[in-house]
Prior knowledge:
It comes from Paenibacillus endophyticus. This protein has 64 residues and is an alpha+beta fold.
Amino acid sequence: MIQVKEFIDTDTVFAEKRANEFLAELNDDQVINICYGSMIKTATSGNTYQRSTILVIYKQHAEK
């Protein structure tokens, strides 16, 4: 079965760290594609922050 999992930056957790932890649990042949997007978010204070989104498309092995 083909699955997708999305990782989005929050104020305290970065998408890259979580995506790498997830990918470490998969076999190489399970990964189909990885898509990355980045945007700039402006807070009410006027400060800007980069936010990232990572989408992992992978094959889920059938349970036996």
